Amino acid sequence: MVISQDTYNSVKEKTLKGRYITLDHIKPILDRLPDNFQVKVIGHSVNKSPIHAVTFGTGKIKILMWSQMHGNESTTTKAVFDLFNLFQSNPEDCKAILRNCTIKVIPMLNPDGAKAYTRINANKVDLNRDAQERTQPESNVLRTCYEDFMPDYCFNLHGQRTIFNVGNTPKPATVSFLAPAFDEERSISPSRAQSMRLIVAMNNVLQNLIPGQIGRYDDGFNANCVGDTFQMLDIPTILFEAGHYFNDYEREHTRNYIFIALLTALEVISDDSLNGFKKEMYFGIPDNNKLFYDILISNVHIIDPGKYKSGDAIGLLFKETLQNELIAFIPQIENSGNLQNYFGHKTYDCSQENDLSALKTQTFWNLIKS
Fold this sequence. Notes:
alpha/beta, eight-stranded mixed sheet, globular
């Protein structure tokens, strides 16, 4: 299914923008969904906030998605609401998906973490490390939903930091995927093979839009992770990671690409074309690496020759800080020294007069001089 930019712009949920997305933001949208979208409270968080599931479609193939398991990973939440709007507009191509599939979405599994803009829940537990013991109410909500729904596919929707690049290239990992392992040996079970094929299908589409900006997330096995757990239960599970796009700290471009990936996956599942994609091509997607800084300043010995050697650099990362219901990006020095194999989303070269002059006007100038 080809969705033009104009069509996407028409279905993009305008009330959701930026990085800070909470239950207060999504609840009015849930309340106005039409009757063919079943909205149900399926449980409550530590702080007794409701956790909702949205179910639509009438088909026999069942797909379960959940977003904001980590409260500060909101990009995929925006994308699923864009998806809701597309299916409400009911284009002809979507009718087959609705006829063949039943889709259940938990748009915000961790509403307490979303409100505090933290990865963890209100008990300071990472829900994605609680799949086995299920000590937290949110973990039990997800597992109960899974057992009641018995999905044929699971989509685990997350976000990743700006540090990730693709392979050894200076391209950000704007979207990354993972077919989670189901054992220590990272064997390819039938369900994992299906996950790989689905990722190949999405990668084929995205490469036409953001070539070289799709990565493959680390597949180290951890039974405490939800994706690994569901893969162990023989259900094809796919991890989606919404990452950085050039100069897009609000992740508005990235939400578009997650939307396209989700729609592609639904279409491939619906039209039963999954086996037409070769699982081996999954391993052709480059690994994620962690070679990016938000700001990379080279030749800093020119600023302070007593502190830095010739050729030294400083790498800064932004600390995402909640301020007045907006996310502020506060630069902090992460590393210094020989950083020649690293990249910067923004770069300054102190040996260049224009760069040095521009650097002196930045709010972090005193930080790097101190």
